[in-house]
Write a structure and sequence with these properties.
alpha/beta; Rossmann fold; seven-stranded mixed β-sheet; three-stranded mixed β-sheet; globular; binds glutamine
């Protein structure tokens, strides 16, 4: 499996470390020609406005948007979630707009702008997931095709999936729990099967 990690800005190295451990082949994406032959893509955390600006200056914005629209599986974490969202508030900004969610940036205010919490994520099993939030967004609204994967105790949506798109408000790459990365590779494997490209090979524990 060949997985690209958008490496314009932000904490992409940690994603590379996790996914390589799970047996994926990783490519750092900075230029449009590096998108060829990808089976999946990770958009990491960082600063979403900076990342969008760099995507435009590197000529990546439009090719990426088309690739995602054509069905490429993507995991967007924190700023990556913002970039996937169809609509953004606090303030509004230009995004790839490929996922039917409305996301509020820096949604936790100054007091709680960084925190860690054990999240209940039924799709990952019974054990809770240690989620690190750093100046994180949350999902304010979802379209009918979106499945909510996790909420905070106050009900805020912080993990969601729509088909081949996985959006997480927190940083699964900071810590030692690889279950979200494994879940994402499972999505990639199913997509490869569906498109008849390869037998599914979901990495073992
Ligand atoms: N606050 C950042 C933004 O709005 C996201 C923070 C992060 O990715 N950790 O883009």
């Amino acid at each position: 499996m060949k997985i690209g990690v958008l490496a314009l800005q932000g904490d992409f190295i940690e994603h590379v470390r996790f996914l390589e451990k799970l047996g994926a082949r990783l490519v750092a994406i900075r230029k449009p020609d590096e998108l060829a032959g990808l089976d999946g893509l990770v958009i990491p955390g960082g600063e979403s406005t900076t990342m969008v600006g760099l995507m435009h200056s590197y000529g990546l914005f439009q090719p990426l948007k088309e690739l995602i629209r054509s069905g490429l599986p993507v995991m967007g974490t924190c700023a990556g979630m913002i970039l996937l969202a169809r609509k953004v508030s606090n303030p509004d900004m230009d995004t790839l707009a490929v996922m039917d969610i409305t996301v509020k940036r820096n949604a936790f205010g100054r007091q709680a702008d960084s925190f860690e919490i054990e999240l209940d994520v039924p799709s990952l099993g019974e054990k809770s997931f240690p989620a690190v939030f750093i100046r994180a967004p949350f999902v304010e609204d979802t379209g009918s095709q979106v499945k909510v994967l996790a909420r905070l105790p106050d009900g805020s949506i912080v993990a969601a999936r729509q088909g081949n798109l996985l959006a997480l408000a927190f940083h699964p790459e900071l810590g030692h729990d690889a279950r979200f990365h494994r879940y994402f590779l499972g999505m990639v494997a199913s997509h490869l099967m569906d498109t008849g490209k390869q037998e599914a090979a979901i990495p073992a524990d």
